[in-house]
Design brief:
The chain is of the alpha+beta class. Helix content is 24%, strand content 30%. It has eight helices and 18 strands. The strands form four sheets. A six-stranded mixed beta sheet has the order 1-4-3-2-5-6, with helices on one face. Strand 2 (33-38), helix 1 (44-60) and strand 3 (65-71) form a beta-alpha-beta unit. Helix 5 (199-207) runs antiparallel to helix 6 (237-252). 26% of the residues are buried.
Length: 381
């Protein structure tokens, strides 16, 4: 389905909920000139266009020219976004996508100009909705021809190395073939996909921080999401991860702090190694699990330690001072089984200790603000 034809009646604008700027009358959009913007909080070009559209609203917004920004997202996501990036004019949601479908939206952002008679007069990228275009329309009732979208650097919204584009963030489609996560390994181009993940788990993965070193404060969102991320501009993976976390936190109202707390942990020591160093054989490393059993081939003790933390949800410290690569086959059903196998089969002792551990706090929007002046938490960087 394509876009509606210029000069023909524009499809009805169906709204699920108004976030801000709701017209006072029920037929508030009828008999008005309307600028209808299709956008999303997850869309980099949409965010880049907000200042431009806000300037137009400030200059031309009136009772006779209404600006409406329409998204398919949940109201609470949009509300959190608007706290950091206000949008002037009306903001509404179309959760069922009826208006998106009626206008043939294939990509966002996309802007439509509808006159007071309900006729579609112009559509295109918001960057082409200029002050000159609106001046001509309001004074003469004439508008330029439709300008085709372009990726020209002279006309496209500015995209900086810090801009991150969320290709998709939506309710999980519950597709068992796609369940899981993957992160691109390029040095300067970031890609990540998460299917059937809670947002806090997406953040944990991006921060590379296991459950054992995180704490949730408040009620975490339980909804499972499908999330796809990609950086617009070549940028180091670490910087892209941090930028992705910042945007997710803005969208879901999550604050991140790091504090040092005393926690029970477990040291790995190896006074009498029963291990064969495989480093000289070369080749890559691999780790996998099946039916409660972990298999690691040609892995370091640091890699083993990370896997222990992730699977057993306890804090571990590698104090073996072993620098080689080794093979392991371990039961992972219970901590007691794993601990016994490490000592009896590999000579690695696992002993309890109390240590200061850096903990990442994910504070939900409904959590009370805590922390003391003596040891204030610091925002994750």
């Amino acid at each position: 389905m394509g876009y509606p034809a210029i000069g023909q009646p524009a499809p009805a604008i169906e709204v699920s909920a108004w976030i801000s700027g709701k017209p006072e009358q029920e037929n508030g959009l009828s008999k008005k000139n309307v600028i209808l913007e299709f956008w999303g909080t997850h869309c980099g070009p949409c965010i880049a266009a907000i200042p431009h559209l806000n300037e137009l609203v400030a200059t031309y917004g009136s009772k006779d020219l209404l600006f409406v920004s329409l998204t398919r997202e949940e109201p609470h996501i949009v509300e959190r976004f608007l706290e950091k990036r206000p949008i002037k004019g009306g903001v509404a949601t179309d959760r069922e996508g009826a208006t998106f479908a009626a206008y043939g939206i294939r990509g966002i952002p996309h802007t439509f100009l509808i006159d007071s008679q309900g006729l579609l007069r112009w559509h295109g990228h918001p960057v082409f909705l200029t002050a000159e275009l609106l001046e001509e329309f309001l004074q003469t009732d004439k508008v330029p021809k439709v300008v085709e979208e372009t990726t020209s650097a002279k006309t496209a919204p500015e995209v900086t190395p810090d801009t991150l584009f969320f290709l998709k963030i939506d309710r999980s489609a519950a597709n068992p073939d796609r369940k899981g996560a993957s992160l691109g390994r390029g040095d300067n181009q970031f890609e990540a996909e998460f299917y059937e993940y809670q947002v806090v788990d997406v953040i944990r993965v991006l921060l590379d921080c296991p459950h054992s070193r995180t704490r949730i404060e408040g009620k975490e969102p339980e909804e499972l999401l499908d999330v796809e991320l990609r950086s617009f501009h070549p940028m180091p993976a670490k910087a892209a991860r941090e930028k992705a976390v910042d945007v997710l936190c803005d969208m879901f109202g999550i604050e991140i702090y790091r504090v040092v707390e005393q926690r029970e942990g477990w040291t790995l020591t190896c006074p009498n190694p029963q291990l064969t160093d495989m480093s000289d054989l070369g080749g890559g490393s691999s780790m996998g699990g099946f039916k409660g059993q972990f298999t690691g081939s040609n892995i370091t003790i640091d890699q083993l330690t990370d896997r222990l933390e992730g699977s057993l949800k306890r804090v571990f410290f590698n104090e073996t001072h072993l620098a080689g690569k080794y093979d392991f086959v371990l039961p992972f059903e219970t901590f007691a089984q794993t601990r016994r196998a490490l000592e009896e089969e590999y000579g690695i002792k696992v002993e309890s200790v109390l240590r200061d551990v850096e903990i990442v706090i994910l504070r939900m929007a409904d959590a009370a603000i805590g922390g003391s002046e003596d040891s204030p938490p610091r925002r994750a960087s």
